[in-house]
């Protein structure tokens, strides 16, 4: 009788599966390259930019979260090469953003995700006019949307996304690659 009891206890203990609590806190950073189109002093111009982003995400559950971050961008290679003959130089933008986050798990650690939210970016540039350089800073509310694919293993993850931001002063799109830590 005790043998049957011991086997039953052992099988019961082995049949219990461990359910890990999904991580709720994620910090990450993205780097990328893209283009920007902006309206300045009754004119329109465009160029390319290096993009960077740092963020904190709180996950309400496995598929939904809220992300707060800071994004910045500055002149890309083409813009730097064209700056000696351009009236508008030293173009950059940056500022805080807050976005909703939703993901769809694909398996093997992969997921598709999307995010969208509001931004408060400041567009900065230098305008050359009649030999004079004048610096401008223009801030406004805008929106941002992104879609991408991510892979995660335990506390580390990688992602690749397309990000689009628009406000009253400019619109910018680009591809970003990033890494994240979950805790």
From TrEMBL:
InterPro entries: Beta-barrel_OMP, OMP/PagP_B-barrel. Residues 6-183 form the Outer membrane protein beta-barrel domain. Pfam families: OMP_b-brl. Keywords: Signal. It comes from the Bacteria. Residues 1-20 form the signal peptide. This is Outer membrane protein beta-barrel domain-containing protein.
């Amino acid at each position: 009788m005790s043998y049957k009891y011991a086997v039953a206890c052992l099988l019961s203990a082995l049949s219990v599966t461990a359910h890990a609590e999904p991580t709720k806190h994620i910090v990450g950073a993205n780097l990328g390259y893209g283009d920007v189109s902006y309206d300045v002093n009754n004119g329109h111009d465009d160029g390319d930019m290096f993009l960077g982003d740092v963020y904190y995400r709180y996950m309400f559950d496995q598929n939904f979260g809220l992300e707060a971050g800071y994004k910045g961008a500055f002149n890309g290679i083409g813009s730097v090469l064209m700056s000696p003959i351009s009236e508008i130089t030293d173009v950059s933008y940056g500022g805080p953003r807050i976005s909703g986050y939703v993901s769809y798990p694909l398996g093997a650690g992969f997921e598709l995700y999307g995010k969208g939210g509001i931004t408060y970016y400041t567009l900065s540039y230098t305008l050359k006019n009649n030999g004079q350089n004048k610096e401008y800073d223009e801030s406004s509310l805008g929106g941002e949307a992104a879609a991408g694919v991510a892979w995660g293993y335990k506390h580390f993850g990688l992602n690749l996304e397309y990000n689009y931001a628009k406000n009253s002063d400019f619109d910018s799109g680009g591809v970003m690659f990033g890494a994240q830590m979950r805790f």
